[in-house]
Amino acid sequence: MPRRFAFRMHPFSITSAPGDDYLSVHIRTLGDWTSELRNLFGKCFEAQVTSKKATLSRLETTVVADSATEDTRFPKVFIDGPYGAPAQNYKKYDILLLIGLGIGATPFISILKDLLNNIKSNDEVESIHGSEIGSFKNSGPGRAYFYWVTREQGSFDWFKGVMNEVADNDHSDVIEMHNYLTSVYEEGDARSALIAMVQSLQHAKNGVDIVSGSKIRTHFARPNWRKVFSDLANAHKNSRIGVFYCGSPTLTKQLKDLSKEFSQTTTTRFHFHKENF
């Protein structure tokens, strides 16, 4: 990698959970450096696909595989740290409100995965020991609300697998997910009525949302944030809610003000944290 790129700062988001046996990182392609990084890894993946196809067809397998390995090896990756993040202390709250704007959803995927791993762990313990320790729970928030707001429908493909995994394994409804597509008129508007009707029929028939391609229903337009805070305050009285926002500065002031307002006017305490890019 050219030396001039070595010490630049780039917003790489870790999207694997502490309990995972791998490390996953999501990187937005924006500019020369990240474009070159994508191209570099893209060539390696293409070489792997070519090698596998050659193996299946048994045509010059050795030559193709050897040349692919020789010329397009994956680069070595070194990780330094640890680095702080606004959401790193999420376990100290009773309830979580996670809000991602566009690519800002990435930091919260690792949190959702960690919560999901805890759910699976609890289920395994209960299935083995039954009522003997059926009340066992890992430490951490009792419930999480995830709001993902994006203009691009294709963005939902990034974490389709995670969304489906949550829908399949979260039998106790610990994680509540809301996808919002802002490039479509809000629900109830005549201009979006047709797509909403088709969406509803498709989800009822196959359990899959035609917009996100996952089992999580997609809403249109933007969330009513005041209603979101009001509903949480009513549902979780006397609780400490960690509000974590990642995205452009667009929503920062509104979410911060709402956190302060509802902390002062209700028995629920909202603690606001943000990460802008």
TrEMBL record:
How does it sit in the bilayer? Multi-pass membrane protein
- One Gene Ontology cellular component: plasma membrane
Domain Ferric reductase NAD binding per the UniProt entry, residue ranges: 93-258
Q: Where in the cell is it found?
A: Membrane
Entries under Pfam families matching the protein: FAD_binding_8, NAD_binding_6
Gene3D superfamilies xref list: Nucleotide-binding domain of ferredoxin-NADP reductase (FNR) module
Residue runs in coiled coils: none
Provide the transmembrane region boundaries: 95-112
Gene Ontology terms, MF aspect: metal ion binding; NAD(P)H oxidase H2O2-forming activity
Q: Which UniProt keywords apply?
A: Calcium, FAD, Flavoprotein, Membrane, Metal-binding, NADP, Oxidoreductase, Phosphoprotein, Repeat, Transmembrane, Transmembrane helix
- Where is each FAD-binding domain found? 5-87
**UniProt record similarity statement:** Belongs to the RBOH (TC 5.B.1.3) family.
State whether it acts alone or in a complex, and with which partners, per the record: Monomer and homodimer.
Q: Function of this protein? A: Calcium-dependent NADPH oxidase that generates superoxide.
Q: What is this protein called?
A: FAD-binding FR-type domain-containing protein
Q: Which organism is it from?
A: Triticum turgidum subsp. durum
Lineage of the native species?
Eukaryota, Viridiplantae, Streptophyta, Embryophyta, Tracheophyta
